[in-house]
Amino acid sequence: MNELKLGSTLVGDGHPCYVIGEIGINHNGDLKIARKLIEMAEAVGCNAVKFQKRTVEVVYTAEELAKPRENPFGDTNGDLKRGLEFGKEQYDGIDRYCKEEEIAWFASCWDEASVDFIEQFQPPCYKIASASLTDDGLLRYTRQTAGKRPLLVSTGMSTLEQIDHAVEVLGKENLILLHATSTYPSANTELNLRVIPILRQRYGVLVGYSGHETGVVTSAVAVALGACVVERHITLDRAMWGSDQAASLGPSGISKVIQHIRYLEPAMGDGVKRVYPSEVPIQKKLRRK
What we know:
This protein is α/β, with parallel strands linked by helices. 40% of the residues lie in helices and 20% in strands. It has one domain: Alpha-Beta Barrel (TIM Barrel). The protein has an 8-stranded parallel β-sheet. Strands 1-2 form a two-stranded antiparallel ribbon. It has a two-stranded antiparallel ribbon with strand order 5-6.
């Protein structure tokens, strides 16, 4: 059986889908909102929540940070990026809240210093964002830091050749690739869910799905196609201020995603064709020969 351990939870073939509520930057720089999102994720049945961590001056150029952009934190893009970035005090709170709610948490780290920062909390795994898939230095540093812990790698806006190279850099041990389309929100016609079994066959590793669409049924379809992990952005309200809110699911949306997945899983069966005992009386009643 192809399986990995995410914290104390086994993930992979034959195990329930591991559902991640992607909080990302939907906390809008407010720890109280972050806590409400953690509570919501636990209440609807998510296995984990995920954040994003950046060293702003490393990830963005000075020119990018200086660009005018009206936002709740100031008048420039830099004001926005810094305002959305949590520090030690906030992550201490996040770590404490998640332990209270008994839900796992981790982060996608966009630079090496952010990996070092998150490592102090000993996350069960690390996430490589689609934007970082071609950053060989970050891939190697994250793998070195994670050790035997799993790496989840999103593959949005990437060619198979680029994914080939990332897998070569990271190695296949303790690796989960996440099929993704990097538009926010993603058009239904561009989800291309049939890539999921192709990734499974091509790399021989566990494969999941990171969705940015507004629909909910597609996540269950991803599981039917072989995804053992599903990550969806979550929000308290899709009408809230913030660049990722429109590509996120509110409480009812993420709840439906999990309901669909849990309904589907036992229906998938084991792939062995058989006559069930419940069919025998019907067989005797309806078959002439």
